Amino acid sequence: xxxxxxxxxxxxxxxxxxxxxxxxxxxxxxxxxxxxxxxxxxxxxxxxxxxxxxxxxxxxxxxxxxxxxxxxxx
Amino acid sequence: xxxxxxxxxxxxxxxxxxxxxxxxxxxxxxxxxxxxxxxxxxxxxxxxxxxxxxxxxxxxxxxxxxxxxxxxxxxxxxxxxxxxxxxxxxxxxxxxxxxxxxxxxxxxxxxxxxxxxxxxxxxxxxxxxxxxxxxxxxxxxxxxxxxxxxxxxxxxxxxxxxxxxxxxxxxxxxxxxxxxxxxxxxxxxxxxxxxxxxxxxxxxxxxxxxxxxxxxxxxxxxxxxxxxxxxxxxxxxxxxxxxxxxxxxxxxxxxxxxxxxxxxxxxxxxxxxxxxxxxxxxxxxxxxxxxxxxxxxxxxxxxxxxxxxxxxxxxxxxxxxxxxxxxxxxxxxxxxxxxxxxxxxxxxxxxxxxxxxxxxxxxxxxxxxxxxxxxxxxxxxxxxxxxxxxxxxxxxxxxxxxxxxxxxxxxxxxxxxxxxxxxxxxxxxxxxxxxxxxxxxxxxxxxxxxxxxxxxxxxxxxxxxxxxxxxxxxxxxxxxxxxxxxxxxxxxxxxxxxxxxxxxxxxxxxxxxxxxxxxxxxxxxxxxxxxxxxxxxxxxxxxxxxxxxxxxxxxxxxxxxxxxxxxxxxxxxxxxxxxxxxxxxxxxxxxxxxxxxxxxxxxxxxxxxxxxxxxxxxxxxxxxxxxxxxxxxxxxxxxxxxxxxxxxxxxxxxxxxxxxxxxxxxxxxxxxxxxxxxxxxxxxxxxxxxxxxxxxxxxxxxxxxxxxxxxxxxxxxxxxxxxxxxxxxxxxxxxxxxxxxxxxxxxxxxxxxxxxxxxxxxxxxxxxxxxxxxxxxxxxxxxxxxxxx
Lengths: 74, 789
Description:
CATH superfamily of the largest domain in chain B: Aldehyde oxidase/xanthine dehydrogenase, molybdopterin binding domain
Number of helices of chain B: 20
CATH class of chain A: Alpha Beta
Shape of chain A: globular
Number of domains of chain B: 3
Number of strands of chain B: 28
CATH topology of the largest domain in chain B: Aldehyde Oxidoreductase, domain 4
Strand content of chain A: 5-15%
CATH architecture of the largest domain in chain B: 2-Layer Sandwich
Shape of chain B: globular
Number of strands of chain A: 3
Oligomer: heterodimer
Structural class of chain A: alpha/beta
């Protein structure tokens, strides 16, 4: 793994602005592929922007359904 | 013989430090001022190095030195040798290519190191390694076993990429028996390549003392003395008395830490060259690429029977992949640890085996848990299962019919070994009962009712362990003796320090050996400390592999403890004014026979070190005894494994729903530890049978170089194991033990595959039986049936 800057923004807007400011940024969601490839030095972002702290992206919602719902969509 | 402690499931003494993070592994050791090594490895499998420029790397931040294969050669460091000479059919010696610790001009497998960067920090070494400028002239690689002999020649010393063409057994008799037999079952099969994956990767720290001209190498070794012997006598790293090897706590080995590798050698050499402690710890990718791999055989076999299913002859032809170099014991694995086991538990009168060892541009292949014996067992138990199908006989009963019987021992097999004792029917019967074989058809019906397939498979294995009688091994080409040493040091207060040449890397020697010695001396196991793994502390030892620690190392300790008791009797006789032959030693007390006089073990120990009232003219003070034990024969653990699987035909997902193992390991010191060894071995065997496969692409790139690509067994892949024991005591070692470390990995793979073919109603499926493989096999079988109709 190469050195990189780690960010943990607390809002979408902050995440977007970090992304825009950084030289070669990547977002970190689950990291199942990104982290192993970084450890192998196959991926080398200058800035890693962790999405875990974004309350706006927390949870899962749908407000429309392709099929008649068996349960009510929330 | 010994009582108390023996056979007790005592909790492991070493676990307190392991489970509280107080273990002392090589990477936990940090020496003052140490630098870090990072190896520069070939990204291609076969190439000539046309230019190598290290100047930019040498100039990088924190770099102490960049050392290359050329410097290794200049310093006269020798080749890493293979320690077992195998002769071909024509009597010629095996062809062994040189194996330089760092490649100088040619690359023979992907991941082979050709330079090492030494820097203040690991990060600096790693960064600088990217500045090493190297150009390769890439050559076509030889990768598969099948193509090896017709492919481009890898080493000038090895024509046709063939190290040897070996045979064992009576060829003409075997062929005649096959020709005249009522029925011959034929089978081609592959034993899949495995990558060991010990939980602790290999690591080494080289430390040089210029004042004494001594090198100390801390490393993850299963056999530190053997490593010292090879590094001094063959590699010429240092004189033997100027090299100390310490293998502290080691986190698993499974064979992969027997061998003498490039990295450990280079770290020790560089430490002296630079007069600097140097540390290297493999990352997991390096382990995948460079730890010696296991198995990788392609075989053809024929089993001849009469009309009643009696085995008449077995013929086997095997191609064994050695990889790019001959690793330390590689040559012995597909020969003397494989061909010799092909009689199995059966009275087959004629067995003939031919093995060709071939080289490929892949990582070296060597011993991995079982080493040769899993390959023999897989072949034999698969062909016997198919023979039962073809003869329309019950697979358990076909085996039973052919078993060597208790009255046949000692039994000389047609393939060199003489089995001393066993009772194979006892293990089979117990396993059949535990597995509820009688209830299987009802369980199968229940599965079918739920749309699932269910199968049951057997494996009756035997192994040769307790390596090994030195003179037998020597006559077969071994470069070393295979005895073991032990020392029992009684301290003045009566506690005991035990030194063993065996090495524990998870086996629990600190408990098992303590139980053994404590029983012999009638003291508490808390008063026994077991020390191992340091050439500076104990006599020469041979280390741990081949399920040898208890049967060979334990026997040495028993001999040493017997000497302690014998000397104690002399001291006790003096103190109580009796003849030493009139003294009985029982339960920690020396008693004068037919009297009420007695002295405790502790009193005798104190008298030996404070010899105020002591027969000094006849007896030396002190109470320390050593023993070396060279076994008279191999030991022959054997047993029956029965596997039951349930398969979802829509997805190929296969569950091992029941696994029964009944083993005969002779005398058992700690049944809990033995059961743990069996569990781990079965897990590894199920891993080989269903999940694991080391795969290279046609250019020699390892496709399975991480845990994302190489599937290790997880807890949810495994059922609860039903483990049982039968016992016939080994006839020729004082402990009566046979060894238990490899049995699980040897016995289980054919049981699993036999269960899967039984469930699918097919003749063959290759390992690993992944869901895709199982589903595809089922589709092919269904389509063949459809075409047949």
